[in-house]
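In the previous chapter we treated chains in isolation. Here, by contrast, the input contains two separate entities that must be folded as one system, with a combined length of 569 residues.
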Amino acid sequence: MRWSQTLIPTLRQDPKDAEAASHKLALRAGLIRQLSSGVYSYLPLGFRVLQKIIGIIRDEMNRSGAVEVLMPALHPAELWKKSGRYETLGEDKIAFKNRAGHEFVLGPTHEEVITELVGGSVKSFRDLPLTLYQIQTKFRDEARPRFGVIRTKEFIMKDAYSFDRDEKGLDANYHKMSEVYQRIFSRCGLTYKIVNADPGMMGGKMSQEFMVECPYGEDRVATSEGGYLASLDIAQRGNPQKVLAGTLSEKLEIFDTPNLRTIEEISHKFKIKPASMAKTLIYIADGKAVAAVISGDSEVNEGKLRKLIGAESMRQAESKEIQEATGAPVGFAGPVGLKIPVYADWDIEGMVDFVTGANQKDKHLKNVNLSDFQAAAFGDIRYVKEGDLAPEGKGQLRLTTTMEIGHIFKLGTRYSKSVGAEFLDEKGERVPAIMGCYGIGVNRILAAAIEEHHDEKGIQWPQGIAPFEAEIVTVNQADSGTVQAADRLYQELSKAGMEVLFDDRDERAGVKFNDADLIGIPVQIVVGERNLKEGKVEIKRRGTGSVEKVDLVAVKGFFSAIAEAPTRK
RNA sequence: CGGGGCGUAGCACAGCCUGGUAGUGCGCUCGGUUCGGGACCGAGAGGUCGCAAGUUCAAAUCUUGCCGCCCCGACCA
């Protein structure tokens, strides 16, 4: 493709609205343009990258035996009500009514549609297992789109769904998909981690996320030297088994805290460190009020708390319920004298003379100690923090910011039961299909690749997803010898099936070199008068910056050598 | 949805406090000189100053309301 005949609007300056490297560079290199918050157009270069990524995904999915389909983006709201997710979807769904008054949802994901589809067409165990996938635009009304293409309201997702007769089949498919994903991300040039995760609102039992490290990601992963790896949502820690130091110095004392409800307010007013306060939160677990006590500088992890309590369902109490349970308005709860079960974090076991609410309006207690209240149980009920003991019991946890690029789930029968995907087994019994689902954020791969592969000058595309394999740059477009040679080279390489961008613009060499570094095509072929005299061109690798002179006639051979290099796959 | 910031030419920004002919750099067009890492000279084009209402003889500038965008947080399949 000739630069002069396409649209690559590079920018010299950083757009002020961009902060993440991938956002700045995608804008500067003319890959994307924003239409509105979280909504982007892909220009020729950006679109080519997406196509490359999609090509790799398709290739690997097909190779694994999955079959591609295309489902609608427009879903009748009825279907979502059937699965029970219409409500859970909440504000994130983009829904509207047509002229007949029928409500539609722009598909945020496709479990419902695929289950409906397969449920209607697959009737026998003989048809299973079956894995279908699609590559399609999803819509989610994100409250806060950010970092360019990392979090958007409209994005391309590869979503796959497996249907099996039994758990064993699901396990096999899940495992296979994990391997497919590893191949896909490797071919896209990404360094990723596989992290155990929380299935969240998808339902189901098990899920793993494919994460890349990235300062602008929005997920956090806990790791330890011992190799522990888990999403922050479910990361556990070891029991610090803190031993109380010495004797308890002070006597329990009540003090006035008019209108000071939060840890922050009290910490500020009385110069007490949050770590020497205990936060008490009231939850409703299986319909009954319980209290959770953690140190003032931590956050309750509801999933862990629910596990410790052994409850089926759990939610935060409303102010009325808090008043009932503690006898005080919100903000003054404490474990001392509470009638409801108290669940405390391990941290509390190691605390002496701490501050808590007094269960009275505008009052707190100080010099609280373990002996002042009765805990139903101690356990790990807060989110882990940097420096916590690793769950294996040795070493510390570290938190890393990551971006999720893929997620695989074992769904089980969550959708096949609610939406209806049942088949007859060997015994003629009607049973629900066992499902798995597997997603990849296509646009995020583009962003992740830029985040991982760039320098101050611009992008350094990995071979596999570069928009072009090589870029020819003429040093002086006014020199007819240069233009002739470059033109012929361009024709020849193109004819040989190579994807080549030819910068034939009548710009100064410096401008073209800088643009070439910006858009980051892996190989730059510089054609100039100087080297042409010796029948040579210059070949520069964007990744390493290495430059070598190659005979003009040998360029094609040079590339077949690259093509066989192992990075290419 | 809560907190903060910003909206002036394609991009980056000044002007606003103290109201009075809308500016700078880059980019763009034309002519010329140049041509191996973001050239130079000359001539140009391009703006309802986010929108609306108000104050005023007069509003980019002051007041109010709204809209949009970015960042932090909440949320997140």
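Residues 493 and 556 of chain A are 7 Å apart (CA to CA). Residues 18-69+118-234+400-450 of chain A form a domain with the BirA Bifunctional Protein; domain 2 fold (CATH 3.30.930.10). Compare these points with the single-chain example from earlier in the chapter.
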